[in-house]
Amino acid sequence: MAVNYGSKRLVVGAHYGLRDWLAQRVTAALMALFTLIVLAQVIFSRGPIGYDKWAGIFSSQWMKTLTFVVIIALLYHVWVGMRDIWMDYVKPASIKLVLNVFTIVWLVGCAGWAIQVLWRV
């Protein structure tokens, strides 16, 4: 007869740990740096801020590329956070799956919209 000592370990998610913690911090730092860059461009621009000046800030290729990278970082940041919320606070697996799928669809839609706005400028 086998004797079981202690409790069986229950693994509830495969994404806990240092990687997600670090991803949240790196993406947050990137978004903060981007905010400072945009804020500096707005503060140091001459004249009133209108559509032409705002579009001018985002018209250069390096700014479009940086904005694209920040959009991707923002989407990953949101995904990690929402996935962790769903894993921690929603117990039924079917509801958790529906919420995860909805989150992914919503984030892909937001990415498409943000990139369309960015490249239309």
Q: Key features?
A:
single chain, 121 residues, mainly alpha, 3 helical TM bundles of succinate and fumarate reductases, 0% strand
**Average of pLDDT:** 88
What profile does the largest beta sheet have? none
How many domains make up the coordinates?
1
What is the molecular shape? elongated
Question: Please, could you describe this protein's structure?
Answer:
This protein is mainly alpha-helical. It has a single domain, classed as Fumarate reductase/succinate dehydrogenase, transmembrane subunit (3 helical TM bundles of succinate and fumarate reductases, Up-down Bundle). It is 74% helix and 0% strand. It contains four helices and no strands. The longest helix has 29 residues. The chain is elongated, with a radius of gyration of 21 Å. The model has no long low-confidence stretch (mean pLDDT 88).
Ordered list of secondary-structure elements with their pairings:
Blueprint: H1 18-43, H2 51-57, H3 61-89, H4 93-120
In short:
This protein has helices at residues 18-43, 51-57, 61-89, 93-120. By secondary structure, the chain is mostly helical.
